[in-house]
Structure formats: structure tokens, C-alpha cells
Amino acid sequence: MFKFSLIKKDTESSARRGELTTSHGAVQTPVFMPVGTQATVKTLSPEDLKSMGAEIILSNTYHLFLRPGHELIRDFGQLHGFMAWDRAVLTDSGGFQVFSLAELRKISEEGVTFQSPVDGGAKHLLTPEYAMEIQEALGADIIMAFDECIPFPATHDYARESVERTQRWARRCKDAKKDTGQALFGIVQGGMYPELRKQSAEGLLDIGFDGYALGGLSVGETKPVMYEMIEASAPLLPSDKPRYLMGVGTPEDLVEGVDRGIDMFDCVMPTRNARNGTFFTSFGRVVIRNAQYERDKQPIDPACGCYTCRTFTRAYIRHLFNANELLALRLGTIHNVYFYLNLMQNVRTSIEQGRFKEFKKEFLEKRETIAN
Known about the structure:
- By secondary structure, the chain is of the alpha/beta class.
- The protein contains 15 helices and 16 strands.
């Protein structure tokens, strides 16, 4: 059921306009996937997401395995039935979350043994085969191969060993995957070493996947280094398969990624920043708790068409945050997620119209101004 169709290529960059076909509907690319770690995009309902145009969301294998458990979710109609979301879902493999545990995990050829932070420190072993079993039970439209996300900085020797291990795990994932109709993506690793990124990509191509992701970025490296790694990796991937940049990033990162040939993005930034009172706008960031907004009658972003901006003032939203009202988190999240989804809609339109480079220049120049 899964298919990727390339609709248009930009003539002045590597930007691509495409469409993913899944068993839960079409997804227009380039696309940003709101993060629903625990089978929910925090503070938002499925209807909220649909009203904003979301066609696919991401959920997290590691967290759902620990709580409430993949078998329970399977018995409630898999993720789509459990969370009442009838559009596409992508699940990550849990590799990044295990990486972030650091002190609580041990990596071996078999897989990763880790102590759970949610059930009294119980030990679990996550292997490539088990990652496939869990994701098959969750029923996502797109599932990810189990990989090792290395820290930054990492030595060349460690990065090389990790690439080779990730490739062996990727082969085991493909061998273990059942014929469920789910698309399986491989993940390119290699730290900040272009030659290792190339080795990783070539190894994954030999195995063959439905799509390819770039992992291990936005883990502490500078922006120029991250962009360099994208430039080194994306051209190595087949043009007829989707390219997914995992865990990235700011609005600027999304536009820069599209420029370099990326089709899919996810990041917690819009939701996490919203809950902290930081909003993305067409002209930069607004930190709503700042005193300058106490009597401000403007919406968060006068150029935004989201429910929050159509309805409420900066002064009111600032009051909600300072009073610790739950509505603050919801209104902020509505704005930030809408901003990201609308940004990608504008990116897609600019590629269709053959003016992506012009759009990128205007977008970046406008966001360099100071929010007022």
C-alpha cells in the first residue's frame, strides 16, 4: 500500500514536492510530523490536528512499549483505534530514547539492555527483532529500523563501529519484519564524519528499504556541521524514495533541509516551546511572559490564521501563562503546530510554483527582524 510519488523537482535547489500513499491516506511532502510521543500530541485532540491540516503524526515505540504496552494497544485497534486517529502514523524505533538514557543502558551486538524510568527500574532488552514486533503491534503506517544514535562528539573509531552495528541491526530488522503492509525505513548514521555517512547509506541501500532517514543529527553539533552532513548524505539516497530528517528542528532548519532534498521532518520544538511560552512567528520568536506584552492587543502573530491568533491577544495569553492556567498550554500549542504545518504548506506551494529559492530568501530575511 505504501508508495512515494515525486511530483516536482525544484530547478535551483534539491527541493522536492512529493506524495506518500499510505493505508490511512495520502501525505503531501515536504511534511512536518507533529510529535505524539505517548499516542497524543500534547494538549491537542485528533480533531485539532485535522483542522490544522496534519496528515501524519509520529509516536514513540520506546515510550509506548513501557506504558501502556504494545500488546494492549494492539488489542484496542492498534494506534489508530487506540487514539482515534484515522490518518497516517510513523513510529520511531526507540533508538534515540535509549541513547538518551546514557547511564541506564548497555549496548551489545544482541541489542540494548536498559533500565526503565517508569516501572521501578526494571530491566528490558530491546533488540532489532523486538523493535519490529512492537511496531507491528502498534500498527503504524511507517516503522523505523532499530539503530544506535551516538553522542556528539564521538571518535571516528566509535562512530565506525556504530555504523557497522546499525547496519547489521538494519538487516535483522528487515529479515524479522512480517508482511504487514507497513513501510520500513532504514536510518543513516555516522556521526559527523561524511565518509561514515556514505558507508552507512551504501550499506542500507544494499539491504533495501521503503524510505531512508538521517539520524544522529541535532545532538549538539553546530548548524553548519548539521547542514554539511545533510548535504553529504541526502544525494546518496535514491531519488524515488522518501528522505526523512529525524528530530529536526527549527523553522529555519526545515527550510534548509528542504533546500537539501529532505521530504519529512519531526521535532518536539513546536509543542515543547509552546508549553514554555515561546512561540514561533513569521518574524521570529515571541516569549510571551515578557513584560512588554502585558497590555499588547495584537495576536501572537498578526500574519497567522490559527484559532489562537484569530481569537486572543498577547495580553490574554500572557495572563494565562502567568496564572498557570492550562488553557495557556493548549492555545500556545495550537499556534506553534499550526505555524509549522502552514510553513510546510507554503514550502510545497513555492516548489510547485518554481519559486522555492525566492521563498526561502524572503522567509529567512523576515525572521531575522526582532519581534515587537
